[in-house]
Amino acid sequence: MSATAAPTGTNRLARPTRMGPRTETTLRIVAPIAVGLIVLGTWQFLVSVVGVSDYLLPSPASIIEEFIAYWPSIAQAMLITGTNALLGLLVGSILGILVAAVAARWRPIDQMSAPVVASLAVIPIVALAPVLNSMFGADSQFGRQAIAALASFVPVFINTLRGFRQTAPVHRDLMRASAASSGQVLRTLTLPTARPFILTGIRIASSLAVISALVAEYFGGPRGGLGGLISTSAASSAYARAWAYVLASIALGLLFYLATLALDRLLERRPRERRRT
Amino acid sequence: MRDGSGFRDGAGAPPQPASGAVSAVEVRGVDKVFETRTGQVQALDAIDLTVAAGEFVSLIGPSGCGKSTLMRLIADLDDPSSGTLTVFGKTARHARLDQEYGIAFQSAGLLPWRTVAGNVALPLELHGAPSAARSARVAELLDMVGLTDFADRYPDQLSGGMQQRVAIARSLAEQPRLLLMDEPFGALDEMTREKMQSDLVRISAETGAAVVFVTHSIPEAVFLSDRVVVMSPRPGRIREIVPMRLGADAKRAARTDELREERAFFDMVTAVREALHGGAPVGTGPRGMETR
Ligand SMILES: Nc1ncnc2c1ncn2[C@@H]1O[C@H](COP(=O)(O)OP(=O)(O)O)[C@@H](O)[C@H]1O
Ligand SMILES: [Mg+2]
Question: Best label site of A46, A60, A188, B223, fewest CB within 10 Å?
Answer without folding.
Answer: A46
